[in-house]
Design a protein that fits this description.
The chain has about 350 residues and is α/β, with parallel strands linked by helices. Helices cover about 40% and strands about 15% of the residues. Pfam families: Beta_elim_lyase.
């Protein structure tokens, strides 16, 4: 029973079936196929405006290539210290931007606050040849702490970005989970709030390997096709990437999958909070839980066959639990019952 990550789950059956269907016959290569065209049309409908969408196969590629068109080699990209681009992408954003610098801005529960961003940008040394120049801000939705940015929070940061003439990127690896938590529209928490480019995730939510870089500011997309090709992410048989996204978006499947993951996380935390000595580190607003349990409970859960990560840099007993579209309610109930028995 694995609660390490939503990446441990397989594929949603609907997406697996779509891949098998896409395998029949032939289709034009390098994205000139009907699946890729449908994905862009569906995303335009979902976001209530025309968008330009470029499928890629990893979240790191989506983020790094998106930021490469937003920041010059001498640019600064502002993000949270725990952002995926800062911690888990092996320098890819800096590499593909030709040397741009990631600049961390601390904030509670994995989120940037508009006032903190404004204070840093006010001292960003714009125009000073000795310093990197403010270029982009990157938000993670949902954050690496499992929290979500409300539309007004995004808009407040976007206003700061506009005032300082920098672009706003959103890492949406768990975009669907954040969206379901807030019951908001995709448009309201992205371009209507001031987001220029979105890395739209599907892999963590039922796809095999499929993400999309979505441009709301179409001018930024001018060189993206070449950058994607140069980075090795213009897949020759692109229909197999786009078929995943096509099925993911069909009939709100993506939202149903995220709702299940969120519901299982809510059930898990509700049960665990009843245990004496338990401390919840962050609000649970998607499908990630950061929680501190008694050490004997942590050890006993592992001995009982449950997998999860100890969280680095935190106090002993702090673990991360992640649910997915495939998490079974009976496994959540067993985890809670086992933890309660160990704590008794």
């Amino acid at each position: 029973m694995n609660f390490c990550s939503d990446n441990v789950a397989g594929m949603a059956p609907e997406i697996l079936a779509a891949l098998a269907s896409a395998n029949d016959g032939t289709a034009s290569s390098y994205g000139a196929d009907p699946y890729t065209a449908r994905v862009e049309a569906k995303l335009s409908e979902i976001f209530e405006r025309r968008v330009l969408a470029f499928p890629v196969v990893t979240g790191t590629a989506a983020n790094a290539l998106a930021l490469s068109v937003m920041a010059p080699p001498y640019g600064a990209i502002y993000c949270h210290p725990e952002a995926h681009i800062m911690v888990d992408e092996c320098g890819a954003p800096e590499f593909y931007a030709g040397g741009a610098k990631l600049v961390p801005i601390a904030g509670a529960h994995g989120k940037l606050a508009a006032d903190d961003v404004a204070a840093v940008l006010a001292n960003g040394r714009a125009g000073d040849v000795h310093h990197v120049q403010p270029a982009a801000i990157s938000l993670t939705q949902a954050t690496e702490c499992g929290t979500a940015y409300r539309a007004d929070e995004v808009a407040a940061i976007a206003e700061v970005a506009k005032r300082h003439q920098v672009k706003l990127h959103m890492d949406g690896a768990r975009f669907a989970n954040a969206l379901r938590h807030m019951n908001a529209s995709p448009a309201d928490i992205t371009w209507k709030a001031g987001v220029d480019v979105l890395s739209f995730g599907a892999t963590k939510n039922g796809a095999m390997a499929a993400e999309a870089v979505i441009f709301f500011d179409e001018a930024l997309a001018e060189s993206f096709a070449f950058r994607r090709k140069r980075a090795g992410h213009l897949i020759s048989k692109m229909r197999f990437v786009s078929a995943q996204l096509d099925a993911y978006l069909e009939g709100d499947l993506w939202l149903r999958l995220a709702a299940h993951a969120n519901d299982q996380a809510a059930a898990l935390v509700a049960g665990l909070k009843a245990i004496p000595g338990v401390e919840l580190l962050h609000p649970v607003e998607a499908n990630e839980i950061f929680i501190r349990l008694p050490l004997n409970v942590v050890a006993g859960l592992r001995a009982a066959g449950f997998d999860f990560y100890d969280w680095p840099g935190a106090a002993p007993g702090t673990i991360r639990l992640v649910t997915s579209f495939a998490t079974r309610a009976e496994d959540v109930a067993k985890f809670v019952a086992t933890a309660k028995a160990l704590a008794a």
